[in-house]
Amino acid sequence: MADAITEGAAKLQLDEETGDMVSKGELKKRLAKRAKKAATAKAKSEAPTKAAAAPKPAAEKKEDVPVDINAIFKEGFLDRVYKERPVKDVYTRFPPEPNGYLHIGHAKAIAINFGFARFHGGQCNLRFDDTNPEAEEEVYFTAIKEIISWLGFTPAKITHSSDNFERLYELAEELIRREKAYVCHCSDTEIKLQRGDEGKRPRYRCEHAERDIETNLTEFRAMRAGKYAPKTAFLRMKQDITDGNPQMWDLAAYRVLDAEHHRTGDSWKIYPTYDFTHGLCDSFEGISHSLCTTEFIQSRVSYEWLNKSLEVYEPMQREYGRLSISGTVLSKRKIARLVNEGVVRGWNDPRLYTLIGIRRRGVPPGAILEFVNELGVTTAGTTIQLARFDQTVRRYLERSVPRLMLVLTPLRVEISDAEPTDLVIPFSPKDAAMGTHTLHLTKTVFIDASDFRTEDSKGYFRLAPGKSVGLLQLPFPIKCTSFTLAEDGKTVASVSAEYDRSGAKPKTYIQWVPEDSCKVEVRMYNQLFKSEKPDDVEGGFMKDVNPESETIYADALVEPGFEEVRKRAPWPEAKETGESKLGEGGPETVRFQGMRVAYFAMDSDSTPEHTILNRIVSLKEDAGK
Ligand code: ATP
Ligand code: MG
C-alpha cells in the first residue's frame, strides 16, 4: 500500500498561485480556469490587469537542466581573450586585497580566473594583494582561502605581493637607473596643478623630474631608511605626460607609510603602490592572462608601460564587466555599519551577500557558479536583481536536495480512525537514487495552523469544519469533525478529524508531520532592504532596512526523516564543488525542500539540542515580498 501512496503523491504539483499541492489534473483545470478569466479580463480592457499575469503553465517553464559551468569559456569574451594569446600553459591569478570579506561580485572574479585556467588545463594562483598594510587582518586571509576552496577551486600557489617587496624594490632602483623614475616631494595640491586643466592650463613636470640618477638613488634609499615622513617624499614613474590617459601622468610607485605590515612587520618604511606592484607581480608569476574588471581599462597602458620599461616578461591584461546586485549593499563600510549597529547577526548574516553570508544561508556553491555562467561574461557591467539570483538557487535546489515535510506553526489534529502505520516515503519524487525513509503514522499529526480555517469560504480548498483535505502521502483525505479553541477564545487549539472514505478526490493536499517529529527553530528571511536601491533612499541605506527581514518560528516541527538528511549531508551529493570534496560539510550542507514551505539549510548557531533552520529561498518567485 505504501508504494501506491507514494506513487500518487509523487505526481502532485505545486499550484504556484495558492501554494496548494494538487494533482496534475486539478492543476490543469485551475490553470485553464485562470487563463480563461485572464482572457475575459483582457477582452474587457486593453489595460493590463492582474489576472492577465496568471502564471505560465508548467510545460512552458525553462527546462530543468544544470547550466554548463564552463559555458563562459567556450564562447564570447573569454573565448576571444584566450584566442588572443592561445598559449599551452595558461596561468591566471585571483588578487584580492585582504582587507575584508569577499562578496558575490568576487565570486564572479573567482569563477572567471580559476575557471579559465582550469578550462584550459592551466593554473591559477591566489595572490593576496597586501601592499596596503593599514587595512589587513589575519581573519581575512583565512576567510578568503576558505571561500575559494568552498567554491571548488584549489590555488596552484598562494602568494603575497609582499613576498616580492625586496624584488620590487630592486626593480624600482632599476627603473631609476633607466631614467624612468624620480623621487618627488610635491604636495597633493602641487600634483593636482601639474595635471593641468583640459584646454586651459597645460600639464607640466615639477623640478624633481630633472634630478639625475645618482640623486634619485640616494633619495630613494633615504626614503627606505626612514628619513622622510609620510607624504613628504615619493617615487614617481617617469611616463609620458603628453599622453591623454591620466594613467601615464607620472604615477606614484612608492610612498612612505608609518605602518606595521602584517607579514613584514616594521622592516619597510616605504610601500609600493598598486600601479607599480600589480603588473610586476603578474610578470614574476608568469601570468599569461591577467583578467580584471573594467575600472582598470585605463590602467592597461601603465601596466604595459612598466613591464616594457623594465624588459621583463609581459602578461596580457584584459578587462571584464563587474557584477553588481541591486536591492542590497556590498561595500565594506556599509556592511560594517549594519554589523556594528546590530541590524544583522554579523558579517555572515544569511541576509547579506557576503560569500560567508550566502554560504551560511545554505546556498550551494554550485548554484553560484551556475549563476555566473547564466549571466555570461562581457565587457559590460551588469546589475542583477536579487530575485534573479534566487531563481537560479531555487532551480538548482529543486533537482538536487531531498524533500521533507515541515510545519512552521503546528496545529494538532487527531484522526479518530487512523491506524498506526509505517509509511515509506521517497526523499525525491524525481530522483529515486535519493532513497526513501519511513514515517510512523499514529492518530496524532500536526498540520500548519494556516491550513485550517474555522469557517469555510469560496475558493478555499484546505481544512475547515465539515471539509476534507488531502494529507500528502496519506491513504485517505481527512475531514474535520470539530475543533477546540485556546483560552483566548480565538486561537485554534486542536482539530478532530476522520478519514474521508467517500472516494472523492481532494482538491488539494497539504503537508503534515507525525507525532514523533523534531522541534526546530526556523528563521525565515526576506530581503534586508525595502527598495531596489537602498543607497538612493532619503537618509541613506540605513533608513531602507526592512523591519520584517527575519521572522522566527520557534516551535516549528520537521518530520523525523530530517535525521537521515542531516547524516547524509552534504546535499547535493554531486562532487562538483569544494564542500563535497572536503567531505566535512558544515551545517549549511544539510539542505532540503520543506514541501509547500521553502528550501532550508541548518544554521551554524545550531547545537545538538537545538536545531535552527535558515530559509535559503522560497519555493516560488513572489513569496515573501
Ligand atoms: P570592493 O571594492 O567591492 O571591496 P575590490 O575591488 O576592492 O572590491 P579586491 O579585493 O581588490 O576588491 O578584488 C579582488 C578581485 O575581484 C579584483 O580582481 C576585482 O576586480 C574583482 N572584483 C571585485 N568586485 C567585483 C565585482 N563586483 N564583480 C566582478 N569582479 C569583482
Ligand atoms: Mg580593490
TrEMBL record:
Enzyme Commission code: 6.1.1.18
Stretches for region Disordered: 33-60, 568-588
Gene3D superfamilies: HUPs, Ribosomal Protein L25, Chain P
Residue ranges occupied by any Glutamyl/glutaminyl-tRNA synthetase class Ib anti-codon binding domain in the UniProt entry: 402-500
Domain of life, source organism: Eukaryota
Record Pfam families: tRNA-synt_1c (PF00749), tRNA-synt_1c_C (PF03950), tRNA-synt_1c_C2 (PF20974)
GO CC terms of this entry: cytosol
Domain tRNA synthetases class I (E and Q) anti-codon binding, chain residue ranges per copy: 510-567
Claim: Repeat is one of the keywords in the record: no
GO molecular function: ATP binding; glutamine-tRNA ligase activity
Entry keyword set: Aminoacyl-tRNA synthetase, ATP-binding, Ligase, Nucleotide-binding, Protein biosynthesis
Comp. bias intervals (Basic and acidic residues): 573-582
Entry's Gene Ontology BP terms: glutaminyl-tRNA aminoacylation
Domain Glutamyl/glutaminyl-tRNA synthetase class Ib catalytic, chain residue ranges per copy: 90-397
Start-end of Low complexity biased regions: 40-57
Swiss-Prot/TrEMBL catalytic activity: tRNA(Gln) + L-glutamine + ATP = L-glutaminyl-tRNA(Gln) + AMP + diphosphate
Family of the protein in this entry: Belongs to the class-I aminoacyl-tRNA synthetase family.
Protein name in UniProt: glutamine--tRNA ligase
Organism the protein comes from: Pseudogymnoascus verrucosus
Lineage, top ranks: Eukaryota, Fungi, Dikarya, Ascomycota, Pezizomycotina
Gene behind this protein: GLN4
